[in-house]
Each structure stands twice: as C-alpha cells, then as structure tokens.
UniProtKB/TrEMBL annotation:
Upper lineage: Bacteria, Bacillati, Bacillota, Clostridia, Eubacteriales
Cofactor(s) in the UniProt record: Zn(2+)
Superkingdom field: Bacteria
Residues noted as binding Zn(2+) 2 in the record, renumbered to the chain: 105, 135
Listed name of the protein: Class II fructose-bisphosphate aldolase
Pfam family, one: F_bP_aldolase
Record text on cofactor binding: Binds 2 Zn(2+) ions per subunit. One is catalytic and the other provides a structural contribution.
BP GO annotations: carbohydrate metabolic process
Organism: Candidatus Scatomorpha pullistercoris
Keyword Zinc appears in the UniProt entry: yes
Residues at which Zn(2+) 1 binds: 84, 179, 210
InterPro entries: Aldolase_TIM, Class_II_FBP_aldolase, FBA_II
Keywords: Metal-binding, Zinc
Length: 317
C-alpha cells in the first residue's frame, strides 16, 4: 500500500471517531515492530522520526528511503511524520525531505512568535502538499534531548485564534500530559474539562496529545527486575489517555512505554541467556516486545484496530 495522505487519514479518524497512534522509530527493528503491529491489528499508523534519530543514523536520506520502502509495502495506511522541529529551518528541511506531515514546535516562544513561525511553515508545507502540526501550550518533560519543567495549559480561546491565524492542520495541546513524566510517584490528572472546552472551541479539528505514554508500573518493574533502575514518575494513566482518545483527540504520541518494553526484554534476555551473543536472537526478542506494546496501544488506547479495512472501503487495499 502506498504511504497515505495525512488529510485523508485524519478525515477518516474524525468520521469514524478514533485517534491515530504515532510512534517514533529509532532503527529498522523499531520500524518493523510498529508496521507489523499495525498490520496485525489492521490499523492505520503514524511513523515518526526525531532529529535524534537522524543524528543516530547519520545518512538521513538513505535511512528515509528505507523507511518509505518498508512503509510503502505495508498492508495498512501509513503516514510518515517528522516530529518536533524546533526551528522554521528544520521544519522546511523535513518538508523538503519528503515527509507527509511535519510538526513545528514553537511552544517555547511567545504566542505571537509561535503563530508567525507556524504560519510561515504552514504556507511552505501547503505549497508542497504537506500537513503541518503545530503546538500551543507547554508540556513538561524530556523531548528530543531537551528538558523543560514549564507547564502552560492550552487556552481554548487562544487555540481557536492560533488555528485561524496560522492555518496549521492539527494542534498539539497541553491538558496534563508530560513527555516521559516528571519526578514523583502518582498519576497526573488529565484536565478533561479543558479538553472538552478545546473540542468545543475547535469543532471537527484534529487535536493532538503529546506525552501520551503512561509508564505503567508493570513495565517499569519489568525493567527493574532485570537490573534496571527506573524511578516512578508523575504521568497520566493509560485509562485517562484512552478516555481522551474517545473525547475528541485525533492523534496521540506514545513512545516511552515501547522503549520500556524493549529495554526490559533486552535485560531479560541477557539475564536469562548470558552466553548468547548472536545479535538477531536478542534483537528479535526485544523487537517482539515493542511490537506487542504497539498492538496493545492500537487496540486498547486509541481504538484504531480494524480501521485500516474501513479506510480502504472494506476492500483492504
């Protein structure tokens, strides 16, 4: 199946009232895990790439060619998106590299600067048929190797104005989530009153949740059982994220839980099989854990399982 158009994919999510799951990949293993999980669940999926991944792979163009090749042969709708471009220049470069969607993050700037930059990127993107996701409000935690503890919830009134002024196609909002959580050991409450107000202020518009992983105790304890040291954090519960995805959110970025599952599997493998050194053995074991976690998110959190067949009009192609 070809990599799909973002506009068509989001229109389907709005029509059928589900959220699209977005997962950042870091390697061929993680790409396979995400795509195979989506195929197993007959679910659309958004594959995302961060600047850190581009630095890791070094040859970005060849890497993206490989990603597009894999995605293009997938049996479900796949959208390729560049996540968290921190400058206008970086966003334009991602657009030129052929991503179907790009996220420009000007949330650390003033409203006026963020709106002006987002509008500039939106114009550049739309001239090339690319979808732009912007962000308004501040989400705490670590993202793309940058940490912020600043929390600024998104104003519904400002969100409506921001969308009108910038022409962005989707908007990441701050309603209580956190990138990887913040120090503490209790669940963060998600502000559903604010989310409802945002949905009412921007009817039919694709709202996005960043930091939508939940770091469940079972995954954290899995890593720690085999020698890890992952501390508890304040983070939204998976139940709240699932509820948000049934309450107007159309895209949810969920990564940390995949990383915990992968890391825990690697630790378990080496603990139980200390004499093993053939890479495909332990990489396959860890890849399976990543794939299973993605399947869980698609089925139980965003509710997109089975929607790929519906997207193609029941033909499956």
């Amino acid at each position: 199946m070809p990599v799909v158009d973002a506009k068509a994919l989001f229109a389907h999510a709005i029509k059928r009232d589900y959220a699209l799951a977005a997962f950042n990949i870091s390697s061929l293993d993680s790409l396979q895990a995400v795509l195979w999980a989506a195929e197993a669940e007959a679910s659309p999926v958004i594959v995302q790439v961060l600047r850190l991944t581009e630095e890791y792979v070094r040859d970005v163009e060849t890497y993206l060619d490989a990603v597009r090749l894999y995605a293009g042969r997938c049996k479900v709708p796949v959208l390729l998106q560049h996540d968290h471009c921190s400058s206008v220049e970086e966003a334009k470069l991602a657009i030129d590299r052929g991503f179907g969607a790009v996220m420009y993050d000007g949330s650390s700037l003033s409203f006026e600067e963020n709106a002006a930059n987002s509008a500039e990127v939106a114009r550049y993107a739309h001239e090339r048929g690319v979808w732009l996701e912007a962000e308004l409000g501040s989400i705490p935690g670590m993202e793309d190797n940058c940490f912020t503890d600043r929390v600024e919830y998104t104003s519904p009134e400002l969100a409506r104005r921001f969308i009108s002024e910038t022409g962005c196609d989707s908007l990441a909002v701050s309603v209580g989530t956190a990138h990887g959580g913040v120090a503490g050991n209790e669940h963060l409450p998600l502000d559903f009153d604010r989310l409802e107000a945002l949905v009412c202020a921007c009817p039919g518009y694709p709202l996005v949740l960043h930091g939508a992983a939940s770091m469940p105790d079972a995954l954290r304890e899995y890593v720690n059982l085999y020698g890890g040291s992952i501390a508890p954090v304040h983070i939204c519960s998976e139940a709240d994220i699932a509820r948000a995805c049934r309450s107007g959110v159309r895209k949810a970025n969920m990564d940390v839980d995949n990383w915990l599952a992968y890391t825990g599997a690697l630790r378990q493998f080496f603990s139980e099989r200390p004499g093993e050194f053939f890479p495909t053995a332990y990489l396959e074991f860890a890849r399976n854990a990543w794939e299973n976690e993605v399947r869980h998110k698609l089925r139980k959190v965003v509710g997109s399982s089975g929607m790929a067949t519906d997207f193609y009009g029941g033909t499956g192609k």
